[in-house]
Every structure is written in C-alpha cells, then in structure tokens.
Amino acid sequence: MPRPTAAQLSYGSATVIFSTVAMLLLSRTETGVGVGVIVLAALVLGLLVALTVPMPKAARAVLEDHAAASVPPARVPQPRTSRTGAERVSEPSLRR
After folding, report:
1. What angle do CA 62, 63, 68 make, to 5 degrees?
2. d(CA 13, CA 1)
3. Residues 6+ apart with CB under 8 A from 10
4. In Å, how far from its chain's centre is CA 35?
5. Which of 1, 35, 39, 57 has the fewest Cβ atoms surrounding its Cβ within 10 A?
6. Residues in Cβ contact with 47 at an 8 Å cutoff, skipping those fewer than 6 apart
7. Is 28 left (phi over 0), alpha (psi -120 to 50) or beta?
8. Residue 83, exposed/middle/buried by CB under 10 A (0-12, 13-18, 19+)?
9. CA-to-CA distance for 14 and 25, rounded, in angstroms?
C-alpha cells in the first residue's frame, strides 16, 4: 500500500475535527461514554474519507509500472565462457 498523500492526510484530519465538533454539538452529550462513541465514529469517518480520496495520476502510474516490472523477463542472456586464461587481456585489478 502506498504512503498517504498530503491531501489524504489533510482531508482525513479535517473530517475528524469537524465531524467530532458537529456531532458533539448536535447530540448534546455530557457523559464520557457518549463522547467516546462520538470520537470513535469521527475517527472511522476520517479514515474512510482519507482512503477514498483519489491518488494523483503520477502515483497511479508508478504503481502500474511497479506491477509491470515485477514480471520476470522471458529470456536472460548467458555470459560467454569461451575464453581461456591465456586469451584474457592482462589488466590490473582495481581491488586493493
């Protein structure tokens, strides 16, 4: 699952804040259980909004490219092993 975008985070956060305030004002609850239920409902609503905000086209293209790249290639070329030790070019090693 890709990381959430800034739009998803801001829409979800705004939904949680505004829906909590609206439900508290409309329900006029004063008990702790009532406030807890309203807060839980607002969090679920905010999560739902954050997950349904559409992703940008660039992020969708990256996901599609990643899915297409996971398919293995049809043929992998094999290295040539016909050279013998005497035919090799003498080059200094870069290892120390």
Report:
1. 95
2. 20
3. none
4. 32
5. 1
6. 12
7. left
8. exposed
9. 17
Tokens of 14: 């705004």
Tokens of 33: 């259980």
Please tell me whether residue 50 adopts helix, strand or coil conformation: helix
Using CA atoms, how far apart are residues 94 and 90, in angstroms rounded to an integer?
A: 12
pLDDT in tens, 46-96: 888 888 877 666 656 666 666 666 656 567 666 666 555 555 566 677 776
- Tens of pLDDT along 19-54? 888 888 898 888 889 999 989 999 888 888 888 877
Q: Where are the alpha helices (H) located in the chain, listed in sequence order?
A: 6-27, 32-52, 57-69
